[in-house]
Amino acid sequence: MRFGILTISDRSWRGERPDASGPALAETILAQGWQVTETGILPDEAELIGQELAAWADAGRFDVILTTGGTGFAPRDITPEATRAVIERPTPGFDEAMRAASLKIHPHAMLSRALSGIRKRTLIINLPGSPRGAVENLQVLFPALPHAVELLREAPDSEQSHMH
């Protein structure tokens, strides 16, 4: 699977704080034997986020685009809104699974507004901004991600697992 990782952080974008979440996600993805095709950092600006997500998804170079950051209650946390504007089909099961698993670890998980969805044949998933939260949420999705990507690619064997 080919991943793009987009960190959403005003401070990291301005160079005031190193991006810890993007590299933590990349390490986790590579440990699974998957690829990180591209990474980037953007400020908390809905228009820029939406443009980049659309461009990345439309290019067809990624199976999954992960965002990290901008999913909470702070006034500049607008990643879910930017994502909602560019996805064509929501994937609420991923959102629900991440929040349910996170709630068992931390009560603040209910403050997550992260969402996910499909644009063209690319899955876009919002993750929390903290390295630990981002990795934990991504790991929740590991059992379903390969099959989700097979279905999006319309792989010949993708329907096989539905028969059992």
Structural account:
The mean pLDDT is 95. 42% of the residues lie in helices and 20% in strands. The radius of gyration is 15 Å and the shape is globular. The protein is built from seven helices and six strands; from the N terminus they run βααβαβαβαββαα. Strands 2-1-3-6-5-4 form a six-stranded mixed beta sheet, with helices on both faces. The protein is an alpha/beta fold. The protein has one domain (2-163): 3-Layer(aba) Sandwich (Molybdenum Cofactor Biosythetic Enzyme, Chain A). α2 (21-31) packs parallel to α6 (131-141), α3 crosses α4 (79-86) and α5 (92-103) packs across α6 (131-141). It has helices at 10-13, 21-31, 46-59, 79-86, 92-103, 131-141, 145-153; strands spanning 2-8, 35-42, 64-68, 89-90, 116-119, 122-127.
